[in-house]
Amino acid sequence: MARVELAQGRPGGLNGRFHRVGLNLFMVVVLAHWAEHLAQAYQIWVLHWPLKESRGVLGLAYPWLVKSEWLHYGYALVMLVALFALRGAFTGRARTWWTIALAIQFWHHIEHLLLFLQAQTGHFLFGAAVPTSVLQTVFPRVELHLFYNTIVFLPMVVAVILHMRPNRAEAQAAPCNCARPLVAAGAV
Predict the structure, then answer these.
(1) Helix 19-45 to helix 141-164 angle, to the nearest 10 degrees?
(2) How far is residue 120's CA from residue 94's CA, in Å, rounded to a whole number?
(3) Whose CA is closest to 170, among 98, 100, 105?
(4) Can you tell which superkingdom this protein's organism belongs to (predicted)?
(5) Half-sphere exposure (CA, 13 Å, Cβ side) for 50?
(6) Residue 116: domain span
(7) Is the pTM of this model over 0.90?
(8) Rounded to the nearest 10 degrees, how much is the dihedral formed by the CA atoms of 131, 142, 139, 51?
(9) What is the dihedral of CA 22, 28, 32, 33, to 10 degrees?
(10) How many separate domains does the chain show?
(11) Which end of the chain is less congested by CB atoms within 10 angstroms, N or C?
(12) Cα angle 96-92-11, degrees, rounded to a multiple of 5
């Protein structure tokens, strides 16, 4: 029964009673990932470390993490699945913004899939000597993935704010209780 509720977004499912918990856990993961990208950017552009030494925080302790296409693809896939799985409780304007993040992440996932497949097969696209994504032919990888994470994250933030502060119609349509304290207080 719980599995059916989870899939259909009924009150007991991920898009119902457990939406706020799922959303909060997902946002913690996303923010931790962001922190790694920002640490790497700081190492490159502020500390002027060589690119090979600029690996974020975890990458300093575990250098293989930065080079692991398994990890990067896995994270892109987790992002895509979580954005899709949590989408059912978003309504109105919040759903529009969440869907924008999902669509952008779908493309970001495709880019990581291309990198992953190249790393596994040893056949590199565009005559490159290393795995190369489509837009990486135009932009350096660090900057490109910082950009991708930014353009996925920003609509997510807008969606979460709108989800937590819905208008009356959105609040009534929401299957979850994320905004209930605001609704009960008459803020909506």
Answers:
(1) 150
(2) 38
(3) 98
(4) Bacteria
(5) 2
(6) 2-184
(7) no
(8) -80
(9) 30
(10) 1
(11) N
(12) 110
Helices 69-86 and 92-121 meet at what angle, rounded to 10?
Answer: 160
The 10s digit of each residue's pLDDT in 25-59 is 999 999 999 899 999 999 999 999 999 899 999 88
Residue written as token pair 């969606």:
159
Helix/strand/coil for 178? coil
d(CA 11, CA 5): 7
Dig out the tokens for 100 from the structure.
């924008």
Q: Scanning the structure block, which residue is given the tokens 């994250």?
A: 153
pLDDT in tens, 56-103: 998 899 988 888 899 999 999 999 999 999 999 999 999 999 999 999
- Tokens at residue 148, please? 């991708």
d(CA 36, CA 161): 23
- HEC profile of 87-148: HHHCCHHHHHHHHHHHHHHHHHHHHHHHHHHHHHHCCCHHHCCCCCCCHHHCCCHHHHHHHH
